[in-house]
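Minutes, project check-in
Item: structure for the 148-residue chain
Input as provided by the requester:
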Amino acid sequence: MRILLGVLALAALSACAPAPPSAPPATSANSAPTTSGQQQKPFQPGKHFVQIDKGTTRDGTTYLDIRPAKKEHLGESFETITLGGPHSEVPLARNSRIVSVKGKASTVPEFLTDLHRIPPKQRDEGFDVTVDDQGTITQVAWLYVPSW
């Protein structure tokens, strides 16, 4: 009887244990094939808080080098916590919605100009991005206001 109760208690505790952390995102836009042969996307669909290293345009497509970050709320502001790891190159949709540093709609060229104007350390301050089911960024919101 004691063994049965111990096994049941252990099973109940196991069911309540937190899930293990998910695997980190892939590290390159040239995503590695999964075991089923499908391409793994660097970021799953949805909204993400990220740091942007740089933006580049090749063959008519703009790519952002991003990595996940954590937003720690401090009253009305926040602090960006770097999670580390490499940046992933993720394409930006041609019709993506970009909210600029001034809180207004921006074009991709204006965004890239503003992004490259600030020092790399300030780029680590965080952006909200939305990724679609194709692994493409469809929205970027600049959350940090640089002092320039």
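Outcome recorded: The chain is about 20% helix and 40% strand.
No further action items on this chain.
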